[in-house]
Design a protein that fits this description.
By secondary structure, the protein is mainly alpha-helical. Helices cover 45% and strands 3% of the residues. It starts with a helix and ends with a helix. Pfam families: Cytochrom_C.
Length: 289
């Protein structure tokens, strides 16, 4: 091309690129109300946003991948933790960990109950924004499953590229309807909403938002035999099922697991899971001898 053709090509390419950019920008702004659930921005959400900024929470935490990365990303926190847990945590964070042991430095923000409610409303609005998968690698609660898969991070690494199903560890293999109930229960443990392993570990002594499930059978037997137990379960399986569908029937010792006689565990599993799925989950959990 000669100089004139080159100049025209550059000008034309710039105009086309500019028009495309402007078109995409307009289309993005057109979709913002729907993607962000703008109709759900209530006065409580707005006040919660003010609480978030007034306390400089972003200096430690992140939303949508933006923030300090010193503390966990809170974009989907209300999908992992219920409102009762979040409220109790924000009222007194020190109840939930030993600072000398865990080296966590979450300060007590000294928020009023109304401010906490507003902040939780803000978190809930954020959690329901369609962020189209961003950030691509969110900070996950320890042991929780990778979005869009039934694998934990460790299982994904174990599966590795190029491995056949037979070469994968049992926990990393895709679960099909032909699997036994315990295998199906294990998949539900990772993929139910919210995921059970977002709050519970299966490692001995590793307590997260909920108590560890290691030695669950032994502890369930001891609980049922205890005079303090006021539930209706007579067997380990009944106790596990009761804990899933009516978590406040028995409150695990420890202020970090309940408040005011109400468990922090979500009460939605009885509605979101079928009876068959609950049976599968019970069989899986009943294998923790």
């Amino acid at each position: 091309m000669n100089k004139r053709q080159t100049r025209l090509f550059a000008i034309g390419s710039t105009l086309v690129a500019s028009l495309v950019f402007i078109g995409l920008t307009i289309d993005s702004h057109r979709q913002f109300p729907k993607l962000t659930n703008a109709e759900n921005i209530t006065p409580a959400v707005t006040r919660g946003n003010d609480v978030w900024h007034a306390n400089n929470c972003i200096n430690c935490h992140t939303l949508f991948g933006e923030g300090a990365y010193y503390a966990p990303d809170l974009t989907k926190i209300t999908q992992l933790r219920g409102a009762p847990y979040l409220k109790a945590f924000l009222q007194d964070p020190e109840r939930f960990y030993d600072e000398q042991r865990h080296r966590r430095l979450m300060p007590n923000p000294d928020l009023k109950d109304e401010e906490i409610d507003d902040l939780i409303a803000f978190f809930d609005w954020v959690a329901n924004v369609d962020n189209q998968g961003w950030p691509p690698r969110p900070i996950l609660v320890t042991g929780s499953s990778i979005p869009g898969t039934s694998l934990t991070i460790a299982q994904q690494d174990a599966s590795g590229p190029g491995r056949t199903q037979e070469q994968m560890p049992p926990g990393a293999r895709p679960v099909t309807g032909d699997e036994d109930p315990i295998a199906l229960g294990e998949a539900l443990f990772r993929t139910a909403s919210p995921a059970c392993n977002a709050c519970h570990s299966i490692a001995p002594g590793v307590n997260m938002a909920g108590p560890t499930l290691a030695d669950l059978v032994t502890r369930a037997q001891q609980t049922i035999a205890s005079p303090e137990y006021q539930g209706e379960a007579e067997t380990v399986e009944d106790f596990i099922r009761e804990s899933i569908v009516a978590p406040s029937a028995y409150l695990h010792p420890g202020d970090m697991y309940s408040a005011g006689g109400v468990s922090f565990m979500p009460t939605s599993y009885g509605e979101s899971l079928t009876d068959e799925q609950i049976d599968q989950l019970v069989q899986y959990l009943a294998s923790f001898k």
